[in-house]
Amino acid sequence: MGNDRPRVLIIGGGFGGLFCARRLGGVDVDVTLLDRAACHVFQPLLYQCATGTLSIGQISRSLREELAPHPNVTTLLGEAIKLDPEARRVTARRPDESMYELDYDYLVIAAGMRQSYFGKEEFAAWAPGMKTLDDALSIRRRVFAAFEIAETLPPGPERDEWLTFAVAGAGPTGVELAGQIRELATRALANEFHSIDPEEARVLLFDGGDRVLKSFAPALTDRAARELARLGVEMHFGVHVSDVRRDGVTVSSKDGGPDRDYATRTVLWTAGVEAVPFARHAAEVLGAKTDRSGRISVDADLSVPGHSEVFVIGDLAGRDGLPGVAENAMQGGLHVAGCIKRDLGRSARKDFRYRDLGSAAYISRGHALLQAGPIKLTGLIGWLGWGFIHIAFLTGVRNRFSTIATWMASIARANRSDRTFILGGSGHPEEPYTWQSAVHQGHHASRENSRRDQNAG
């Protein structure tokens, strides 16, 4: 690549970053796409991967493979950790913790959001979120291992803990997870165990609002609530999860009622999002305003005020209530690419206009919600609409065909074809045989070190 062409650095390989890179493919610029995992993940279907319906390969694709047709686009593995706006340079960290630097003429921040625990980061040790492939595999391990561990226990409170699943947050992800776990218990696993009855598994859904899926029309959310109740999901509104621990949660009422404890070994967290650390750092060094969740205020063209060479897209862009959905990121990525092309052609940039193409949420097999302007669909028709809308946005023809085949097969049968989970099987002491994820192990190591320090003192 020549050194005299403008350099565009894109942070994040989600929908926004990918669509921006694609649009700039073939344009007279050098594009570098930096991503922590070097793959594009279709986040709206993560819960299908977590509950065994879809495999990793059906909801993700290598960014290098995806962008191979564009010789002016380079994909690099690494995590952005530092921004120097004066030098127009970003420092990235490799997985081995070594560093390297990338220079830019245009910077596109599409790093997305991460799960928020509202200042109680210790909850992450026991309540994984649902934002990455690692999260999905961690949840798969926890959910399927819970049934397997329960099978080894005699009837009683300890077995009941393993057969109780708590979900914090009744937005689309929380509702989809809750419905999938009950569907898993009553269909796919119903006749596969001898000691336990999977259908007795409890799924508790907690939310601070007064209904599920608050972004949807009330008539649709009422239908969703009825379907969840039919599946056996126990819904609790006007509450928030105030404590998470190894063997349970504490739930506090927003109206001042008494706290309640629930014994459970599986807690899943979908209650909030916040900016990733690099985004907060970038906002600080750029002198940009942020909201409480860390979204960065941007001008009408999605550039940062005072830094026309820096753009923020997707759910990090804090402007006019832009939603944190894939369609916003896609449109933002295409818009920013258009702005860069206009700059190169010495024409004026256009303002970003988000076009709401609707929302969809999966409740159970044969039942989903679809809301697009005046169109509101539920039940089987909503489910079919949900499926084809999601499949249409999957990257790569192979992904679409594979997902269509799996999804259509699930219409006729309740089987889930990708239920493999890994508990650590090398036998090495540093890779213990456990249902816990790395964050759990790190949490325990930290607590053990603290105990040792106290004892030593």
Automatic annotation (TrEMBL):
Catalytic activity: a quinone + NADH + H(+) = a quinol + NAD(+)
InterPro entries noted in UniProt: FAD/NAD-bd_sf (IPR036188), FAD/NAD-binding_dom (IPR023753), NDH-2 (IPR045024)
Positions of the FAD/NAD(P)-binding domain: 7-333
Segments of this protein annotated with the region Disordered: 437-457
Pfam families linked: Pyr_redox_2
Swiss-Prot/TrEMBL keywords: FAD, Flavoprotein, NAD, Oxidoreductase
Basic and acidic residues: bias regions: 445-457
EC number(s) from the headed UniProt entry: 1.6.5.9
Recorded family membership: Belongs to the NADH dehydrogenase family.
Descriptive protein name: NADH:ubiquinone reductase (non-electrogenic)
Organism of this sequence: Mycolicibacterium crocinum
